[in-house]
Amino acid sequence: MSQQVCRLSLTDAVNMANLATLAHTHPMSLGTIQSCFGHLYSTFGLEIEGRLVGFAILHQIFEDATLMDICVDPSEQGRGYGQMLLQAVITDAAQSKAETLFLEVRSSSLAARHMYAKYDFKESGIRKGYYKTESANEDAILMELAISL
Fold first, then answer.
1. Among 4, 55, 83, 120, which residue's beta carbon has the most beta carbons within 10 A?
2. Is 104 a known active-site residue?
3. Which of 81, 104, 131, 144 is catalytic?
4. What distance in Å separates the CA atoms of residue 47 and residue 96, rounded to the nearest whole number?
5. Please, what are the domains in the chain?
6. Is 123 labeled as catalytic in the residue annotation?
């Protein structure tokens, strides 16, 4: 099975938005995804047999990098694809001289939190009621990784 992490371009935005709709209860809009291409962003995709099954968006300003989104098709989750994308993000941030990689994750997303902890992300705060849900709002857990230079 052919799988690869590659750079994505603006022409991939529609496929990314479709994937985000499958994977997230409140996905980024197509317009927001389209705005994540440019000199401050690195956008990665995971393709299997030429089909986009995941993506990650990294935003970096000077020494601070932020993982804006990481998304894997629900039918492909649990196979290590999120880790492949996260590794690409960490590598890119390090090569771009980032000192810290930040992210926020739903408090209920235990699998994601476990993955981030496995890569030495540390919890650094909480944003109360940050994420919308069907019935209420959910806290965001802030996490950060000190990148070794």
1. 55
2. yes
3. 104
4. 24
5. 3-146 (3.40.630.30)
6. no
